Input
Amino acid sequence: MTVSDFSASPDEEARLRALAAHDWLDAPPDPALAHIAELAARLFGTPAAFVSLVDRNRQVFHAKVGIDLCETARDIAFCDRTIAQDDLLVVLDAAHDPRFHDNPLVTGEPFIRFYAGAPLRTADGHAIGTLCLAGPEPRTVFTEADRRTLSDLARLALDRLELRRVEVARRTLQARFEHVAATSPDAIICADSCGQITVWSAAAERLFGHTVPEALGRPVALIIPKRMRGGNEGDLRRIASAAAGGLIGRTVELIACHRNGDEFPIELSLSSWREEGHAAFGAIVRDVRQRRAVEDRLFRLAHLDPLTELPNRAVLRGRIEAAISGGRSAAVLMIDLDGFKEVNDAHGHGVGDSVLQTAARRLRASVGPDGVTARFGGDEFAVVLPGVGDPFVAVSTAEAAIAALSQPYHVEGSILRLGASAGVVLSPAHGALEEDLLICADAALYRAKADGRGRCRLFTPEMREAAQRHRACREGLHRAVERGEFVLHYQPQVRLSDGALTGAEALIRWQHPELGLLAPAAFLAVLDEGPDAARVGDWVLRTACAQARAWRDGGLPSFQIGVNLCAAQFRRGDLVERVGSVLAETGLAAGALELEITETIILRHDPGVVAALLALRAMGVGIAFDDYGTGYASLSLLKRFPLSRLKIDRSFVSGLCEDQQDAAVVRAVIELSRSFGLEVIAEGIETDEQRRRLLAKGCQEAQGYLFGRPMAADAFAVRYGLDDQGVDVTQTGDYPSHTSVNAA
Output
């Protein structure tokens, strides 16, 4: 809609008169409106927010933050469209919106891509301006909660606009006061020098419950609860007699009383004048219950975590700065729940939220009133201990918090057991800036988790470098997932009796853009801990199965592919369905797939793991136990789990010819596999002597450098003379889940 369209509208002149009645266009910036703009920018994380008034041919920025313009032509103003509608106007990406893509505010300074505006509509329905958010970056979503918050802020701005309108009206012509009192949505009360009510508006009737005849001539203290009249009644009488002139022109908040006895907060804008030589007093009265509720909600949004009601990260930073100001001592604790992700995955976010709420209460109780407890994000909390410079006191507090958080959680009939880890940092010993302390505390927390969890660690300088390396790897892996930087290599598996190729193990590699091809040892532990583990694993499974199907069709009809699994794929709960879907999609026979599991997965004793493996074996998929004999797996596990093959770890094979104990372990594993009816394969064969000894002991298959190193699909196909040189493994970032593959 253009400016000329508005001018033709029968309501435009009335709208302009309503705007003029507020007298804002050329008035100095109002601090209250400026505060609302600042609050809006902070709540929504936008660089710019402003209160805009729309005149006939221009848009005036009365209160603003993050924008240098004072006004613009109306015909290019986003707000011109906002005032034309009843609801909010939200533009997620102006560059792709046909209404604004060629707008100078989008194509040039100030480069607006995101905009959200709420019309500021007067009580008589005229939109005189807007409360707006703007930024140079597009957004993908503006939620219903966001819309409600922006509307709440707009109501606060309208409150301020309305107060201004009433004040302008009073200054313009005192004689029109009675008319204003009769039409104002706010209650208006006047009293004489003796404090007797002389004017009682219709809005006052609605607000306080007393009719005009009941109120006129009675003391103005009628609006004050009886229990409070001793103080506030005297104040009102002093105002009426002009003895409290310092309150005139100011806004005063009081507790008022309805005729039925209900008490509620009100806001009075006070004025005084003289009539026939006598002092007179007037008050514009507003019920601020709704505004108080909105302000409380906005305060909580800006300062408290909505789930745990602990101070949020922004408040935490301020508390740290206050605690260490002037070089004072303070301790900062970073605390993380151990095992929370597993609880969230297994029981759902509702149970996870209950655990976080309980953890917040326990943590606050264990820290005590002298400490500040905040939610830092996710399942991570932070504690500030002002005045604590003794490491023993700080560590003792952290250990008490860990003990409290490690108690069982009773949620929805379930008993959940989690642990906690903590990092401790001291100021000024480890840093004198808030950001440095948080970084150091995070590094100490990382060390505590790396050392086995369930403990606390006091920061030492070498922790920073280790944490930075871990963080860099974690961030690099996330980019690798998005950019498709992972590739698969394949290590041949052969029959020992004649060296015939029987299959291959799929092994992940990271094609790092700067460091080149990285083996799993450089990144796998970090990937397995991260949120993308299952997603990458699904990609490995699909790619390896597709490649195996191509090679079977290309000349290896009995070829079997081995794919490693990780705990994240089991935690998700749909492994059987995903494997079935991949087999159907690629056309690979179930018997041509062998899934390898590690001791870490088996030792969880999760009934879901056993059920999933049983279902996979029923489908015909092979299940191999990788690295058997290197950890704590017991013989009973071989009976309980539906395994089809044991893999002898390379650590035993490498010492087979020189170490009697290694030879004994190899012999025992082969005998065990024969007793349980399992196949056996040895890893890490590098010499012909190792091959001959394994064959003599009854080992059927092997893999290792003697038969071939892990190699790319095209090299593998060339080596074995396959017609098909490999499937298209171009990566688009579409990773369904990750595998915990060997470090070969």
Observations:
- Confidence is low (pLDDT under 50) at residues 1-8, 728-744.
- Residues 476-719 form a domain with the TIM Barrel fold (CATH 3.20.20.450).
